[in-house]
Amino acid sequence: MNPVQSPRPTPPELLQQARTIAVVGFSTDPSKAAHRAPMVLVDRGWNVIPVHPTASEIAGLTAYKTLADIPVPVDLVDVFRPPSEAPGIAEQAAAIGAKTLWLQKGITSPEARDIATRAGMAFVEDTCAGATATTLNLFPNP
Length: 142
Prior knowledge:
Blueprint: H1 11-17, E1 20-24, H2 33-43, E2 47-51, E3 57-58, E4 61-62, E5 76-79, H3 86-95, E6 100-103, H4 110-118, E7 122-124, H5 129-135
Parallel strand pairs: 1-2, 1-5, 5-6, 6-7
Antiparallel strand pairs: 3-4
Helix pairs in contact: 2-5, 3-4
């Protein structure tokens, strides 16, 4: 008898289950989508941590240079970087024990998907977390 596999969580479920979201590529420029979309998550109650190579603070939030520098557990890593950088970010997300790797709208990476899957992470690509939260009126689960 084969064990019954539970269905994989959908992107909205993954987003709602996350408490802490690290945003790799969170922009310091408020006019860019890589700033506006993470701010939607902040405004809706997620603990959002910017990851930026030079900024120490973005929109009043403490920023870290790398995922490894973040001093708290991260549930979901949201990526606003070019597809060529996604595999390396996937490896970093796996190294910190993130549960989900989420590539933003327009970003796909079969290699990042393979890395995430091997590490036991859920994987979402080509989907905007901010738009998903807004369209479906999502907030973090209590």
